[in-house]
Automatic annotation (TrEMBL), chain A:
It is a multi-pass membrane protein. Pfam families: DUF202. Its main location: membrane. The keyword Transmembrane applies. The chain crosses the membrane at residues 45-65, 86-104. It comes from the Bacteria. This is DUF202 domain-containing protein.
UniProtKB/TrEMBL annotation, chain B:
This is DUF202 domain-containing protein. Pfam families: DUF202. The chain crosses the membrane at residues 36-56, 62-84, 105-128. The keyword Transmembrane applies. It comes from the Bacteria. Its main location: membrane. GO terms for cellular component: plasma membrane. It is found in: Cell membrane.
Length: 105, 130
């Protein structure tokens, strides 16, 4: 009885890693635009708070992405993405949009 | 709607997904993850577009500017929430060996983007004449 042939991972993990990378770039662009919006209308306490919040959200997004990139890079057969992490990434995005709505009003 | 609430619970509870069916080929899971990320990028682009409308169109009347910016931000929020929901649904369908869920969201999003683009054309034309 021979063991079944190992599945060829192809470039799947690497493609997924690069997709996360692209997504962090898109998130960075959105965060930079958010900070520009926050600091555009003059410096005031609430604006600085929202600006800091946007930076924290961006860092949170980067943390989730880096965790996943690390998992994809180290394991030859990476486990599926945990729903918690997917939800965390989405919540950072939604919170950024809510900050934007607050700033624009 | 009840289905949606049940899915929202699944977003936070990985064990419950893992209890159902068998683990699919990890390559399919990774493809599902990339689709999720592509939708998340679309959401981030919409949100960035909302900020850009607010920042780079200062000559626009206040109502138009804020309305368009908020519409783009809201589209970004919807798109990101739908991204994680669709990802969970696909993951479950693959574990149970069912057909992947169909969705009319891409069509709705295309129509919304087309309407916003047309609105921009009208705004620019009116701006030239006025």
């Amino acid at each position: 009885m021979t063991s079944p042939p190992a599945r060829d991972p192809g470039l799947q993990p690497e493609r997924t890693r690069l997709a996360w990378r692209r997504t962090t770039l898109a998130g960075t662009v959105a965060a930079v635009l958010a900070v520009k919006t926050a600091l555009h209308g003059g410096v005031s306490a609430p604006r600085i708070v929202v600006c800091a919040l946007c930076c924290v959200l961006w860092l949170g997004f980067l943390a989730v992405a880096n965790r996943r990139i690390h998992a994809l890079a180290t394991s030859p057969e990476p486990a599926a993405l945990a729903p918690r992490h997917a939800t965390a990434a989405v919540l950072c995005t939604v919170a950024l949009a809510v900050c934007g709505a607050l700033l624009i009003f | 709607m009840i289905e949606f609430v049940r899915n929202v619970r699944l977003w936070f509870a990985p064990e419950e997904i893992r209890r159902e069916g068998g683990t699919p080929d990890y390559r399919f899971s990774l493809a599902n993850e990339r689709t999720f990320l592509a939708w998340l990028r679309t959401a981030l682009a919409l949100i960035g577009g909302g900020f850009a409308v607010d920042q780079f169109l200062p000559d626009l009347r206040w109502g138009w500017r804020v309305g368009l910016a908020l519409a783009l931000l809201a589209a970004g929020v919807l798109c990101s929430l739908r991204a994680v929901n669709h990802w969970v649904r696909c993951e479950r369908a693959m574990r149970r060996g069912e057909d992947l869920p169909v969705s009319r969201f891409p069509a709705v999003l295309s129509v919304v983007v087309a309407v916003v683009a047309l609105a921009m054309v009208v705004v620019v034309l009116v701006g030239w004449q006025g």
